[in-house]
Amino acid sequence: MILPIVAYGDPVLRKKTEEIDENYPDLGGLVASMFETMYNAYGVGLAAPQVGLPIRLFVIDASPFAEDEDLDTEEQEQLKDFKKAFINARILEETGEEWAFNEGCLSIPNIREDVSREEKIKIEYYDEKFVKHVEEYDGLIARVIQHEYDHIEGILFTDKLSPLKKRLLKGKLANISKGKIKVDYKMRFPEAKKAR
Description:
By secondary structure, the chain is α+β, with helices and mostly antiparallel strands. It has a domain at about 5-95 and about 120-155: Peptide Deformylase. The chain is built from five helices and seven strands; from the N terminus they run E-H-E-E-H-E-E-E-H-H-E-H. The chain has helices at about 25-40, 75-80, 140-150, 165-180, 190-195; strands at about 5, 45, 55-60, 85-105, 110-125, 130-140, 185-190. The strands form two sheets. The chain has a five-stranded antiparallel beta sheet, with helices on both faces. Strands 1-7 form a two-stranded parallel ribbon. The longest helix is centred in the last third of the chain and has 16 residues, at about 165-180. The radius of gyration is 16 Å and the shape is globular.
C-alpha cells in the first residue's frame, strides 16, 4: 500500500524515534508498504518518520546508483543488489575522510544540496526477521544509510548545511510545509492541515 510521505515541517520528522520489537503490528506489511511508497516516489531510502511513524525503521534499495558510470565495477556490483530493511539501527562508528555528495529527500522535494559525511560506517541493526547484524559499509551505501539513520534521530539533511544555505532555502522550505509544491507522489503537509 502506498503511504503518504510526510512533508518538511511535520513534528514527526524531528522526533528521536522509539525501538520496536518483533511483535510490532504487521511489521512485514509495513516494510512492504514502505518499499512500495519509496519506489512510487523514485527514492532509494525511506524512514518510518517519513510515513508518520516515530519508530526506528528504515528501508533502502540502492540499486538505482548501480547505473552510475563514474563508479568502479565493484561498487556498482554492491549497489545493484543492496536492498534491506534496518530495524533498531545504531551506527557504532563513522570513520574516514569526509566527502560531499548532492543529497535530496522525499520529505523535502525539489531541494538538493551537497552534504559532507564520513566515508565509512559500522552499524548494528535487526532485519525484518529480527536477526541481528553488525556490518561495515563505505561509499554510497554508507551515505544512504547515514541519511536514513539521521531520519530516525530526528535530523534532516538540511540541518547539515551552512547558515547561509539555510537562510537561502527558508522560503522554499516554508512553501513545502504549506503544500505549495508540485510532486508526483502522495504527500501529507503539516500546515495545509492547519489551514482547514
